[in-house]
């Protein structure tokens, strides 16, 4: 394990700056003395876009590539047309750095409110494919703006792309106590892609005989996520279905205020990026109101990815204890960060 | 209004037969004496498929076309490979009869349990596009079964197809007290289709100045459906997003046991089809356990489509009263049907 971490920090827009500051605070507090943490801040997001028209240049990518990992706050602002920063920065980075494992854990922690009745036990991880599906930008438009316009979106799925993410999900399932993996797709309608996903899933399953598998259509999965969330352990799914069900998963397991994510290149050919699932929340930006918990939990994912398992566990433990003790006291972004930094 | 109804009845598989029988019972009970109800039963589904290899022939379509409407129980059985009946019957019929308005109301009725905490007021309608999007069967596979396989799915969206369903949704929103319409899409990522949907939506909105509109990404919509379902009035969305969110909507508003749907051709160029959202539930088939409520509510949609508004309201009223009075008594399929038939 390298005893230094060279981290790219992208605070981004809105509450991004505030939550990332707390993430770094906790990271500094949890790292052993001998680990040298170097950070470099980048100014991506709405401000840079307005000033220069740039979202993410080749030079930026070359620069970012030198780091061990990336911590991101949030990107997005109402002043920028919808899609520009999403496609020009977030998706561009996921594709450029081949972040094919989009990891999104959902755990209902003690003291956290869920919109679901009862207090279901929720503890699962979604492995969302990050570089294929309908996210490739494939497709087009003819006769735009006329009554004869036709617009297409092409979902592209490759055996190579599906197999590596399915394999990653099986390995994650095998490492968990319950060893369960669900494939979520819509193979009764999207038969070409569905056939590929299902076949690859079944093929790889043969190599993991101790993992219990099931298949579920995405529509049915949304029902189970609100009626029986406890049934899930690990889920593997495509880019778009993963986008949809992880927001739902975040909602049922305590809200996007505590939902963390990692955009991972497992082979470490490129730095992986860790970010809260929530957005930039411009309405509460700069007021010290934002909950940094999701960012801190993303730091835990980052630590685990870099091999600091014990430190990752300490961060998760600190969050869990802190949430359990929160009660109804309203604390500022900074106060929550301080409390977590003390606990680790 | 025609004083006769020529109805095609497709009981289908599993519990289909049982629930359709109750639907017809209630339909008979609610119709005025002078309305002549003629029904013809069709044997589509797993049995026919196993016996003849057919799912829905051209002759079947010509025959079905003669009716005023179609009432369907459920199609699907584990003995048939996934996708065969879905694509060979259900989707084939939706496309052949140009069922472009897939109408799915979600109303939390008194006495009905929701998995959500509290007792949110849920009363919205999803207008799902039914003949385009990723449901067209467009796409393909190369190098199938090899490590170089590529499978694509093409979402096809036309100005014609989008505009007619958006227009239908605006009209429905305008006719409701709250007059609100939300467009759900993912226009920040699926930019070609998203641009078309958003543009058409905004264009048609100008003709309905009294309807309040909003746009929401599909991932965010799943969050709101569990945290603030009361915010929705009418939703319009594409075929795949509609498939996903209507299952979630059914789950939060009392489960698929009470979720009705209509596959509608508004111009009545073809008969529309009405069906419960639930499937054939082979595990409980033939035991008199199935809840026919969703089928009975589908009969209400059928009545309204054919212009029998007062009768439709009486059916919905009967269901609402019955659900409120149900308590914990377990009743058979038949008993529930009898109770509803008496109440209308
Ligand atoms: C902002 C958007 C491009 C992104 C996605 O769709 O992947 C977001 O919703 C997410 O889930 O990270
Ligand atoms: C069975 C399947 C083809 C269908 C769909 O995806 O439309 C079903 O899920 C539905 O929602 O009616």
UniProtKB/TrEMBL annotation, chains A, B:
The record marks 135, 186 as: Important for catalysis. Keywords: Amino-acid biosynthesis, Branched-chain amino acid biosynthesis, Cytoplasm, Leucine biosynthesis, Magnesium, Manganese, Metal-binding, NAD, Oxidoreductase. It is found in: Cytoplasm. Pathway: Amino-acid biosynthesis; L-leucine biosynthesis; L-leucine from 3-methyl-2-oxobutanoate: step 3/4. Its main location: cytoplasm. Its cofactor is Mg(2+); Mn(2+). Pfam families: Iso_dh. NAD(+) binds at residues 279-291. It comes from the Bacteria. NCBIfam families: PRK03437.1 (NF002898). This is 3-isopropylmalate dehydrogenase. The gene is leuB.
């Amino acid at each position: 394990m390298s005893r230094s971490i060279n981290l790219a920090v992208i605070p981004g827009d809105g509450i991004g700056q505030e939550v990332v500051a707390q993430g770094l605070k906790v990271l500094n507090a949890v790292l052993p003395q001998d680990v040298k943490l170097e950070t470099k801040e980048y100014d991506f997001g709405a401000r840079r876009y307005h000033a220069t028209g740039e979202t993410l240049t080749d030079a930026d990518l070359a620069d970012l590539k030198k780091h061990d990992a990336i911590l991101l706050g949030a990107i997005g602002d109402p002043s920028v047309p919808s899609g520009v920063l999403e496609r020009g920065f977030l998706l561009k980075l996921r594709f450029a750095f081949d972040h094919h494992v989009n990891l999104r854990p959902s755990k209902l922690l003690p003291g956290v409110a869920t919109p679901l009745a009862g207090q279901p036990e929720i503890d699962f991880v979604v492995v969302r494919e990050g570089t294929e599906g309908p996210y490739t930008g494939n497709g087009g438009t003819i006769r735009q703006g006329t009554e004869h316009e036709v617009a297409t979106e092409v979902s592209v799925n490759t055996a190579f792309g599906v197999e590596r993410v399915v394999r990653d999900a099986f390995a994650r399932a095998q490492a968990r106590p319950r060893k369960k993996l669900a494939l979520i797709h819509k193979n009764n309608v999207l038969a070409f892609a569905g056939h590929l996903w299902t076949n690859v899933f079944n093929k790889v399953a043969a190599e993991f005989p101790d993992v219990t598998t099931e298949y579920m259509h995405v529509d049915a999965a949304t029902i189970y996520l609100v009626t029986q969330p406890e049934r899930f352990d690990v889920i593997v799914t495509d880019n778009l279905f993963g986008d949809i069900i992880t927001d739902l998963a975040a909602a049922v397991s305590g809200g996007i205020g505590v939902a963390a994510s990692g955009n991972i290149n497992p082979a470490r050919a490129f730095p992986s990026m860790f970010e809260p699932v929530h957005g930039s929340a411009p309405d509460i930006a700069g007021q010290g109101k934002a909950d940094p918990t999701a960012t801190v939990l993303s730091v835990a994912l980052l630590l685990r990815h870099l091999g600091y398992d014990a430190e990752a566990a300490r961060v998760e433990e600190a969050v869990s204890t802190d949430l359990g003790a929160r009660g109804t006291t309203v604390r500022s972004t900074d106060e929550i960060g301080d409390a977590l930094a003390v606990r680790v």
